[in-house]
Amino acid sequence: MNLEFTPEEVAFREEVRSFIEANYPKHLGDTGMREDLSREDFVAWHKVLGEKGWSTPAWPEAYGGTGWTPTQRYIWSEENARVNALMPLPFGVSMVGPVIYTFGNEEQKAQHLPGIRSGETWWCQGYSEPGAGSDLASLKTTAVRDGDHYVINGQKTWTTLAQHADWGFFLCRTDPDAAKPQEGISFILLDMNTPGVEVRPIKLIDGGYEVNETWLTDVRVPVENLVGEENKGWTYAKFLLAHERSGIAGVARSKRGVEKLREIAGSEILDGEPLMSDFDFARKVSQLEIDLAALEITELRTLAGEQAGKGPGPESSILKIKGTEIQQRLTELTLEAVGSYGTPLYGNIANVPGDAGSNQYPIGPEYAQHAASTYFNMRKTSIYGGSNEIQRNIITKMILGL
Amino acid sequence: MDFNFTEEQDMVRDGLTRMVRENYDWDTRRGVVASEAGWRPEVWAQLAELGILGMPFSEEDGGFGGGAVDSMVVMEEFGKGLVVEPFVPTVVCAGGFLKHAGTAAQKEEHIGGIVDGSRIFAFAYAEPRGRYDYANLETTAKKDGGDYVLNGHKAVVIGAPWASHLIVTARTSGERTDKQGISVFVVDKSADGVVTRDYPTIDGRHASEVYFENVTVSPEALIGEEGNALPLIERVTDEAIAAQCAEACGAMKVAHTMTVEYSRQRKQFGVPIGKFQVLQHRMVDMYTEYEQSVSLTYLATLRLDADERTRQLAVSAAKARIGQAAHHIGQEAIQIHGGMGMTDELAIGAYFKRLTIFDSEFGNVDHHMKRHIALS
Questions:
Q1: What is the pLDDT along chain A (402 residues), one digit of tens a residue?
Q2: Which GO cellular component does the record give, naming just one (chain A) (predicted)?
Q3: Residue A4: CB partners within 8 Å, gap ≥ 6?
Q4: N or C: which end of chain A has fewer CB within 10 A?
Q5: Which phi and psi angles does B202 have, rounded to 5°?
Q6: For chain B, how many helices (H) and strands (E)?
Q7: Mapping DSSP to helix (H, G, I), strand (E, B) and coil, where does residue B168 land?
Q8: B349–chain A nearest CA distance, Å
Q9: Residues of chain B positioned with their CB less than 8 A from the CB of A336
């Protein structure tokens, strides 16, 4: 047992680092995910990686994976986080892609996997409904067979970045009479340009518009777009959620965030000294780093288990809980660090069309500008992807056996 | 010992509860916050009419002879409605400086206008590099003949876009962080050399960066003793903290009530989510935090006129602990509301944001823990 990289792994790190340095689109800067980015910005790095063959490292090689070991994948995400790279969005690469190559038929694989790899196709997720959040299996959107089509009616919500989406994967009820609610659900791929699909933006507490309501009215979908078997969608959905959770820990990005926090707290002055040398503050940063170090090893253990043939299991719920708690704590401490300049409503948020009070001037230090909105935004992480309460229920049932 | 409110205080509360209900429903507030002005002068006029703006001033100064408990009652109701109008900067801060240290002429000139609503103040004390230390001042006021000339930059001055006048802290002598050499001035915002950059704040108010570029003020603008204003600033900011703790209590009360109500309405797995014990206990913890916060708000408010050390201990205890409670209740309220809590559509997000920013005003949790430790 050891934590050291082999010479091959060190060489691999050098290789990917140089590749990122040479190829990461400079115009994206190092600000990571921002809501004011264009569709082209969002997929710019994805497209570069698609050409290189590195956009879907976790996939089986037969479908375009890189064949990297878990350690190499870890190095890859570390190196991307160093430049705060805007990674391929998860909806295609980490969610529907694995469902399609695992449960889809050959036509579906041929139709959809290339666009996911290349970044050409933008996917969104149609799971939650106004009445079906944590209790996802109570979803009411129906898909009724009509000849060689399904006719879909219902309303989905929290469809992230659906304003850009070309395709969506939707959970729909195909058997309203099934014995258990989980048994009557199907997993259907939907071209978002189909008549009857309407996407309406939802404004969030940080002022941004990253999620939507998606209304489906008599939407006709060819039956070929059913993935796997009819009424077996819940199995695929659970498979997908476990995949989603393993990426959700965000360790590399949080490590970068802690570095940034240290920089900010090094610039802010308290009683003539950098805030970072204040014991109370430093203790909180260390506490966070310790939790993050533990999570990092926990994630590596999980990845190693995967490599040994165990799929991502219920223990990935730990990664989701701790990963999101750390992300939230990090943004909370960052807001604390910036002090009074966390208070202004900065231009990037106020400049949404129709909002009054646009603020054109830079106020306070640059690093303060996203502190409050990011903190507010990150409250979502303990709610989405199966809320942290649901994750605890999963651990209770699957691990503790209670 | 008596924790009862007077009949007058109950009447004030009832009047404000009605006013907030009628004029400060969620949709109205949202519209006001999004408007160019960001506040409603007619609400301010109504507060003047109700006697709220004159309450904490003595009758001889033209007020109604109330005190800190009255301001507490007012601010709790304002917190419930997330009222944005500048009661703390104008009545508590400017009013406090004038009451405690104003000359007869200064009281005469300003208090009448505060009471009748015609004169609105902002308190310009924070600086870009000051971080909660009132003595860490780069703004200077230099003697020039009989006058003072102000130069400097004040940060995030709440309510400044609406103000006619500013209360400004500045260094008249000494080095940047010296406790001596600090003075307080009242400055007409329209004076030559006062430059403001206005913006909305993330919790629904408005503020300005205020720049003083060779602003000349007369000796009559000095409030209190030249060079010895720090104890006065600490007293007035302690009063402002007590008032804002009451505001936070009002906001926490509503955030908690809304969360409990949501947990009754929202059904998952066939039952209201409020039936789940894991959520019940968390809402109980929120409630306990709220009740403890009310107690500390009483403690701070009732100690405002005690000796300095007693007052500071009580105020720092309240601000530190309520800062924690405000984060806790805000975060739990959003979590229990689930995705709906993340939307701009529901009021709960606005309470969360106000409760978040509350911590960073007049010193955050760590700042007041340190002050409490230093005094203990």
A1: 788 889 999 999 999 999 999 999 998 887 666 666 889 999 999 999 999 999 999 899 999 999 998 889 989 999 999 999 999 999 999 999 999 999 999 999 999 999 999 999 999 999 999 999 999 999 999 999 999 999 999 999 999 999 999 999 999 999 999 999 999 999 999 999 999 999 999 999 999 899 999 999 999 999 999 999 999 999 999 888 777 665 678 999 999 999 999 999 999 999 889 999 999 999 999 999 999 999 999 988 887 787 777 766 788 899 999 999 999 999 999 999 999 999 999 863 333 333 334 444 568 999 998 899 999 999 999 999 889 999 999 999 999 999
A2: plasma membrane
A3: none
A4: N
A5: -70, -15
A6: 12, 10
A7: strand
A8: 6
A9: 359-360, 364, 366
How many angstroms separate the CA atoms of A339 and A334, rounded? 9
Structurally, at CATH architecture level, domain B231-375 sits in: Up-down Bundle (1.20)
**Nearest residue on chain A to B268, alpha-carbon basis:** A135
Please tell me the distance from the alpha carbon of residue B121 to that of residue A260, in angstroms, as a whole number: 37
Point out which residues pair with B185 in neighbouring strands.
B168, B222
Of B133, B273, B356, Cβ closest to residue A271: B133
Residue B116 parent element (H or E): helix B104-116
Q: Which CATH architecture has domain B123-227?
A: Beta Barrel (2.40)
Specify the pairing of strand A149-157 against strand A211-222.
antiparallel
Locus of tokens 């579906």: A108
Asked if B96 and B235 count as a contact pair (C-beta separation under 8 A), the reply is: yes
Indicate the CATH number for domain A7-88: 1.10.540.10
A34 residue type, one letter: R
Specify whether the CB–CB gap between B169 and B184 falls below 8 A: yes
Domain B7-119 fold is: Butyryl-Coa Dehydrogenase, subunit A; domain 1 (1.10.540)
Mark yes or no for CB contact B342/A339 under 8 Å: no
- pTM over 0.80? The answer is yes
Contacts of A37 (CB under 8 A, 6+ apart): A28, A86
Q: Are A70 and A304 in contact (CB under 8 A)?
A: yes
Q: Amino acid identity of B3?
A: F
What chain A residue is nearest to B277 in terms of C-alpha separation? A389
Q: Assign a CATH topology to domain A248-398.
A: Butyryl-CoA Dehydrogenase, subunit A; domain 3 (1.20.140)
pLDDT (tens digit per residue) in B272-292: 999 999 999 999 999 999 999
Domain(s) of CATH 2.40.110.10: residues in chain A: 123-233
Q: Residue A35: what are its φ and ψ, rounded to 5°?
A: -80, -15
Active site residues of A: 244
Best interface-test mutation with B: which of A379, A381, A388 has the largest number of B CBs within 10 A?
A: A379
Measured in residues, chain A has a length of 402
For chain B, the domains span 7-119, 123-227, 231-375
The residue of B131, B136, B179, B202 whose CB has the most chain A CBs within 10 angstroms, and thus the best one to mutate to test that interface, is B202
Tell me if residue B97 falls in helix, strand or coil.
helix
Q: Collapsing DSSP states into helix, strand and coil, what is residue B165?
A: strand
Kindly tell me the burial class for residue B203, based on how many C-beta atoms sit within 10 Å of its own C-beta (0-12, 13-18, 19 or more). buried
Token look-up 């009661």 returns B87
Domain A123-233 fold is Butyryl-CoA Dehydrogenase, subunit A; domain 2 (2.40.110)
